[in-house]
Specification:
- By secondary structure, the protein is an alpha+beta fold.
- Helix content is about 30%, strand content about 20%.
- The longest helix is centred in the middle third of the chain and has 18 residues, at about 55-70.
- The chain starts with 7 loop residues before the first helix and ends in a 15-residue tail after the last helix.
């Protein structure tokens, strides 16, 4: 018998969401105890806006991996979405609401604007494609995200937090 597989992100109506936003995309118990949560930080509108250039997404990934950990010890990982419209952030179950994630993302993106270089992109030793970065593009995306701070929890643009 084949196990029924559900991939949460494939169930999301990408035509109904309104980027930018912060969305809790998963919450799971870990075998042996504890919880992990997955967040969808959407920077661009799926299927209508141009996706982020890979260099921009790569720089956002590096910088958020660094800055979010300045604001919380509960960050497990940051990864770009394959569609290049946003980032996934994996956390411990302590960060269990979009509001808590927002409280970390806003200052983390604020710190991104202060960087003069992408951390971890100094050499081939520290990054698998260390020349594939765009700090200015990352700053541009961060500014656009931060400009919508009051709307970030309204995933579907209805004027209500989800």
């Amino acid at each position: 018998m084949t196990k029924k597989v559900v991939v949460e992100s494939f169930e999301l109506d990408h035509e109904a969401v309104v980027a930018p936003y912060i969305r809790k995309a998963g919450d799971r118990e870990i075998p042996g105890g504890g919880r992990v949560c997955k967040y969808d930080l959407r920077f661009t509108q799926p299927n209508t806006e141009p996706h982020m250039p890979i260099e921009t997404a790569h720089s956002i990934e590096h910088i958020l991996a660094f800055t979010l950990r300045e604001f919380s010890d509960d960050i497990i990982g940051v990864s770009p979405m394959g569609c290049l419209t946003g980032m996934y952030v994996i956390t411990t179950g302590v960060i269990d609401t979009p509001e808590k994630m927002k409280d970390i993302v806003i200052p983390g993106l604020g710190r991104l604007l202060e960087f003069d270089a992408v951390p971890g992109a100094e050499s081939a030793k520290s990054c698998g494609t260390y020349l594939l970065h765009d700090l200015e593009g990352a700053k541009q995306r961060a500014r656009a995200f931060l400009a919508k701070e009051s709307e970030l929890l309204d995933v579907y643009g209805h004027g209500l937090a989800e």
